[in-house]
Sequence to fold (291 residues):
Amino acid sequence: MNGLLIVNKPAGITSHDVVSRVRKLFSESSIGHLGTLDPMATGVLPLLLGRFTRLAQFFKQDEKRYTGTVRFGFATDTYDADGAQVGESVEPDLDLPRIQKKAAQFVGVIHQTPPPFSAKKLNGIPAYKLARAGKPVELRAVRIEVRSFQILRYEPPDAAFEVEVSSGGYIRSLAHDLGMQAGCGAHLASLCRVQAGEFTLDRAATLEEIATWVDGNCCADHMPHPRQLLPQMPSVTVDAGTALRLRNGVACSLPEYSTAPLVKIFTSQRELFAIGRRLAGTLVQPEVVLG
Fold:
């Protein structure tokens, strides 16, 4: 099975657990996810299946949008509700306008330090392994962009929010840093990813729903059409002779529908054959061949 599947990840399992379950459902070993979700988080988790796993590199810069809640009063070692409390509890002296003002300070390009319990690597070792072993974790701050950070309501000690961040941003770190700004500590109490790039929660399916599609042998009908994927790339359809040359690495002249540097190459209405890079004019070099 080749394609992209949008899963509504449940809470309490890892992204790798989701991949493992879908592998069993499809009897397909080649499956990968686009953007890890923490075990407590729910929402959009796109999976690439079969030969489409080779397209992962083209999705890396997609932005993400989340909803969730921040709980004020104490921080945790993981920056979320799954961690152990750090320090004493503090009674928050906050109201909605004050929290909104503090959240606005994070909007824009910022340098964010990832949580110590994260997959970021130090000398090749994931930070969470060092943190679990009680070893010091000193991660470098990374440049991210927070497009918006809206506090929707405050019902002490929880504040509901909606946030849009660039790839690589940690919502756990935003919650932790917001608590530091508030002077009372805070951690991420809940999180749902409602959008990842062009993929939205209303198009995501639960694992239970996907299991019925597989049993009914109609899963492809519920996947995004390949021509809808990577919308920044135009689509062209080639004949068998051109496809053969592209498969052998030969640059070919293809219709110049736009000046986009990358183009999706199809051999039929649905069969995505390759991604090509435009060299000059109509000349396209195969970048990734799926067929």
